[in-house]
């Protein structure tokens, strides 16, 4: 199949801008085959986790190829807010990122700058790469930023207090609450459902909305995920490849062995 000569739109980014409800799944099994299966399941986005897995840059391309043709945008959570990691993934063709543990507007600006060419950022230039279809996508240099999506994670009280400033950063498309890390950093490790954490999640939502950006969160409990959607969160990770495999296999065994 011939490479298109124009940049394809990022429907996940468009959905964030339009306020569409977009459920997604976390990918932690390090299996491109699992990614291919889930990419065609109808979700809007899949999050490939480089922070808490052993996935490296060379493996990311396999997951990107596996996701092609499905409904889901492949979002990569980078291991840290590091320009060199951004650069290598961008050149490989990743255009949607989640940045962990962003604590301030300055850190959010650093993330955005790593994805933009000068004079708008610090991204290094490679003229012939996978991202521009090996120089076949003719409008890449003029339009690449249109398709880039940057989501930053809010995972601590410090970050929660700076949400409006972080949300005001040009180039940040969404702010994603990490409830487990937020709870841990509030001194409530393992208690993301604690009243204090739930109150913080509600305050953060209001501040993200006030900043005019898309709010996201993670919750693998279907009933609680529906509540968060009703509250106003727009993009929610509702499960993972690993959790689906583990929990559904357990449930299936329970069903067939029930007295």
Task: Describe this entry's structure for a reader.
With 259 residues, this protein is an alpha/beta fold. The protein has twelve helices and eight strands. The protein has a single domain, classed as Phosphoenolpyruvate-binding domains (TIM Barrel, Alpha-Beta Barrel). The protein starts with 10 loop residues before the first helix and ends with a helix.
Strand order of the largest sheet: 1-2-3-4-5-6-7-8
Beta-strand level of the residues, as a percent range? 15-25%
CATH topology: TIM Barrel
The backbone outline, from C-alpha atoms, is globular
Note the run of SSEs as H and E: HEHEHEHEHHEHHEHHEHEH
Largest sheet: 8 strands, parallel, barrel
Q: Which architecture does the CATH hierarchy give at level 2? A: Alpha-Beta Barrel
CATH class: Alpha Beta
Number of domains: 1
Q: What is the CA-CA span between the terminal residues?
A: 54 Å
Mean pLDDT: 96
Looking at this structure, what is the CATH superfamily? Phosphoenolpyruvate-binding domains
Give helix % range. 40-55%
- Unreliable stretches covering 5 or more consecutive residues: none
Supply Rg.
18 Å
Tell me the structural class: alpha/beta
Per DSSP, the total helix count is: 12
């Amino acid at each position: 199949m011939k490479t298109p000569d124009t940049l394809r739109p990022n429907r996940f980014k468009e959905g964030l801008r339009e306020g569409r409800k977009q459920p997604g799944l976390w990918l932690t099994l390090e299996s491109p085959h699992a990614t291919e299966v889930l990419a065609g399941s109808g979700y809007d986005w899949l999050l490939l986790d480089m922070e808490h897995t052993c996935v490296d840059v060379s493996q990311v391309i396999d997951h990107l190829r596996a996701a092609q043709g499905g409904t889901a945008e492949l979002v990569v959570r980078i291991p840290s807010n590091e320009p060199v990691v951004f650069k290598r993934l961008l050149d490989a063709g990743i255009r949607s990122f989640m940045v962990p543990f962003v604590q301030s507007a300055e850190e959010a600006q650093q993330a955005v700058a790593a994805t933009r060419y000068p004079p708008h950022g610090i991204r290094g230039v490679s003229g012939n790469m996978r991202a521009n279809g090996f120089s076949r996508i003719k409008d890449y240099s003029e339009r690449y930023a249109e398709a880039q999506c940057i989501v930053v994670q809010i995972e601590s009280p410090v970050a929660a207090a700076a949400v409006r400033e972080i949300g005001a950063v040009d180039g940040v498309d969404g702010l994603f609450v990490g409830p487990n890390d937020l709870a841990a950093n509030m001194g409530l490790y393992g208690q993301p459902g604690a009243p204090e954490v739930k109150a913080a999640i509600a305050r953060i939502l209001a501040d993200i909305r006030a900043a005019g950006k898309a709010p996201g969160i993670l919750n693998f409990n279907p009933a609680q995920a529906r509540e968060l959607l009703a509250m106003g969160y727009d993009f929610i990770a509702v499960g993972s490849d690993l959790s689906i495999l583990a929990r559904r296999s357990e449930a299936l065994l329970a069903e067939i062995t029930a007295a």
